[in-house]
Give the backbone structure.
Amino acid sequence: MRQRPWLFLLPTLALMSISAFIPLMAVINYSLHTIFAGSTPEFVGLQNYADVMGDAQFRGALLRQLTFSLLALLIEIPLGVGIALCMPRKGSAVGLSLVLLGIPLLIPYNVVGIVWRLFTQSDIGVIPRFLAVLGYDYNVSLDATDAFMTILLVDVWHWTPLVVLLAYAGLQAIPQTFYQAAEVDGASAWKTFRYVTLPKLRSVLTLGLLIRFMDSFKVYSEPLLLTGGGPGNATTFMSLFVARKAEAYELGYAGASSIIYLYVVIVMSYILFQFINRSPEERRA
Amino acid sequence: MAKIELKSLEHRYASSRKEKDSFAIEDLNIVWEDGTANALLGPSGCGKTTLLNIISGLIKPTSGSVLFDGVEVNDRPTRERHIAQVFQFPVAYDTMTVFDNLAFPLRNQGKEGNEVEARVNEIMELLDLGSLTAMKASHLNPAEKQIVSLGRGIVRKDTVALLLDEPLTVIDPILKLDLRRKLKLVQQELKLTIIYVTHDQHEALTFADHVTIVRDGFIVQSATPEELFLHPRTPFVGYFIGSPGMNTLRCEKTSDGLEIPGSSLSLPSAIASRADKLKGRIDLGIRPEFVETSAEERSDWNRFTIQMVDHAGAYQVLTLQSGSLQIKARVEDHSISKEGDPMWVNFPSEKTNLYADGERVAP
């Protein structure tokens, strides 16, 4: 009888092992071997990990990835909350604004990449032309900063709406009484935001932050389609780096970098979660 | 502190469908004297909360005026009205400590340092919050939050009035007592003009010196608890106040006096003669407490049958039937009543109210 709970968990566990556990084990297995096309895999222990850690390209990709994700969060979370605060709360405008916000979220990644490649193409794109008018010489395929910022811009455009939707739902759930009380207490608009809105949004913002962090850390198709990881390695983010290694059939090396990559995502997510879920006072203590 | 006055007040909520706008409040006039404890009592949805929000300025009335000490404040924003308001659902700023919660309204006025500390400590002492000073508001129970919210209201010295919007609704029964005691204390210590909104007659009658009964945005009666109990102006007030509510019996005038259709009741001649000069629809109202009962036959009383006996601890509520007529009577004696037994009943004239077209007629 004591086994009965496991019986009920079995379907989920089966699905999880197919979708996560077995592939993960396979990758760990790869990471402990040297595998080249055609040859027999050779067990090398942690050698691949040592190689990866010593690889300046890997460290570059990781640093680039961290910078990218942190910038994305710093822009998308405040911007998303800001837009949500400006959105109408009732009437037919609600539906319209939700649909408009939903559009970027509904566009498939590869379409996003292609559309933005057209936007940014140096000869025909609207962005280079517009920036030229402002006197800025923009070139996504030659300038490393331009390329990096463009990928960031695409990510902000693509995913800020998700933060908006989360924040908007959170705002709608705050009882009106709290705002009335703040008004009676003579609180300014900023103080109302600081002491009523923000604390009440904490749980949805935690969710948004984690989702956005994990997602942005996996950014792949945008740099692949827009810049191909270049110029140089300027937009070679982690998943692109790993994919390149796998494509080159360095499976052991790719496996080891994948595992390190996964580890970094988990650790960073945990740190973020801990950071947000403790109030400022508790942090100070 | 101030006298609060509402003159020809009207408020309607624009309905989203293009139907007739719905009135929340219609042509309402009332005065709450400076430093008095008042209650606004009425069933849910009768416009009580709307009225409070109009006083505090959270809602702008469609027409009419709000006066504080004779000065119209219609155009004054909430923060400049210096009203304290405690809402139905306890509001505390979760990220702040109890101390900071109480200091919040003062700091919003630009006060700082010792002045804030001294005043906050004073209020904390009054409300017995001392042990919670450094506690985060998120750790408080609803009753404590409600006390904090009360404290935030009264911490400003320039508070004009304290508005309480069903403040005990979400509070545990045991903690309710404590909170009610604190409210009373605040009223006595600070001599605040308090308006207490509730749908619970017990809360209203025990707290306030003056109770206003509201129904569908109208004031039905505004009087002391005793007056409301003894002389309810309409059968609605009679039923709404009291537990169980007043018995209201529809009467008809006949050549022999007063008759109650559906029963063969004979009414005392004193009542019949009072009804003599009345016109229109006549109702007789008598509280279950005042219905005289006897298990033994009484010659000039009416015979009823006991339908139901409800035990309420110290007393019993009997449901009595005669023909198709049902009334309630409250008896203190536990030994006499059994369902199915006969019971002789009398309506003493001096305790019986008569209503002509729904309005009480003084004897």
